[in-house]
Each structure stands twice: as C-alpha cells, then as structure tokens.
Amino acid sequence: MADVDVAKQSYAELISLRARLEKEIEEKRDEELKVLADGYAKKLQAAGFSVEEGIKAMLPYTEAKLRGSAAISTSPARVLYRDPANPENTWSGRGQPARWLSQYIAAGRQREEFRVES
C-alpha cells in the first residue's frame, strides 16, 4: 500500500481505505501468528516435547485469561446495607447505590441508618 495523504481523501475513500487496512491487518496478524506457532512447535520438538504437551502446558494461562485475573474475586460482595422494610433489598457498597437506598436518601434519610451491624 502506497503512502496516502488521508487529509485529501473523501469520506467514502477513507471508509474504503479503512476496510482495506482492516483486511490487511487481519492477514498480517494471521501470518505472524502462524510464524510464532511454527517457531513454538519447532522449539517444543527440539526439546523433546510434542506440540500436544506444549498446548496442555499453556492451558492454565488460557483458562486464567478466560476467567479474568486471578486477583479478581468470584465470590459475592459482603452485604453492607439492608432495607429494613424489605430485608431482601441489600447493597454491598460497591458501584452506584441501590435504588431503594437512593430513594431513602432522597427522602432525607442517612445512608448509615441502613448499615448492617458487623
């Protein structure tokens, strides 16, 4: 692809250019990934391992990526606030306040009135 002065391109030409760039990027990505995979396979085989063993060794990294960071807790947050009128209404104190709590605050009540004793 030759150098393109994008400032002189029309909107339609820029959209077309973007589509061509996205296609080229995807092709280059696939090429580079194949080169890396081939190199990885050759290193495994030179060290006396099969490709399958190498893939199996990579699974913990893949699974951690799918789950997200191991530092992120998957357990529910502890309840810090509870609605006395409906004990099923709770809020952990994370993110935006629960709607029921916001309504009480709008009516002049204090957030701490609803704090759960720990």
UniProtKB/TrEMBL annotation:
Pfam families the UniProt entry points to: Histone_HNS
Domain DNA-binding protein H-NS-like C-terminal positions: 71-116
Coiled-coil residue spans: 4-38
Alphabetical list of Gene3D superfamilies matching this protein: Histone-like protein H-NS, C-terminal domain
Keywords: Coiled coil
InterPro entries linked: H-NS_C_dom, H-NS_C_dom_sf
Protein name, entry field: H-NS histone family protein
